[in-house]
Amino acid sequence: MVIKSSPIFLVIGQDNPSKEKLLTEIKGNFLPANLETFNLDVLFGHDLTLRMLQEKLLGLPVKSKKRILIIKQAQSLKEEIKKFLLGYAKKPHDSLVLILDLNSSGWRDTFVSGMSKFSRVYRFQEQVSQDAFMLWRQINSKKPAAALRILKGLLSTGEKPERILGGLRYSCLREAQNRQELRKKLKALIECDLNIKTGKIKPDFALEKLIIGLCGFIGP
């Protein structure tokens, strides 16, 4: 259950204009504009160390009741930092507003689900690459060779496996289909996600296996 008065915010999605509007509202609610320079820190998940985070959490507000700490790209946080934040969320500092800005949360994301119990959660639509829709159309047409060529192209341009998987899931859910077929495909998508996250199979191989399997699920 989300604590509505929590000083921790989870902002999830890739609709950046809407997210920035929300962040501006949060800053306006907690900080006078003339004190923002002294009481606002913005960090990035992929650069953050545990020691750096702990130092920022201990900072005191200047001529204000609150400080704001924004961690962008929080999906890239190191595991030790995620573990620390899960503990911190149970007893956060009253003088600090902590905002975790994530591009995506992934399926069965234990960090996000754990933080959500103690946070105010805002979800925005994720922008799915049009190429992911093209990939799904080839799968839907039972053309595994064409689908695999699109997948190879996506990976070669640096598209992340998690984003490709998210696009396939979105395409799967938005199309009308019988429940039995939907369950089979969602099970395959979840299995692929777990294989990638656990390192059981390399991401590109996991996606190839998924595509071949999904082509087999599509009816005539």
Could you give a short description of this structure?
The protein has 2 domains: 8-123, Rossmann fold (3-Layer(aba) Sandwich); 130-217, Zinc Finger, Delta Prime, domain 3 (Up-down Bundle). Helix content is 54%, strand content 12%.
What can you see in these coordinates?
The protein is an alpha/beta fold and 220 residues long. The protein has two domains: 116 residues, 3-Layer(aba) Sandwich (Rossmann fold); 88 residues, Zinc Finger, Delta Prime, domain 3. 54% of the residues lie in helices and 12% in strands. Strands 2-3-4-1-5 form a five-stranded parallel sheet, with helices on both faces. α9 runs antiparallel to α10. It starts with 7 loop residues before the first strand and ends with a helix. The mean pLDDT is 87.
How many distinct folded domains? 2
Shape: elongated
- Distance from N terminus to C terminus (CA atoms, Å) equals 44 Å
Under CATH, the topology of the largest domain is which?
Rossmann fold
CATH architecture of the largest domain, by name, is: 3-Layer(aba) Sandwich
Helix content: 40-55%
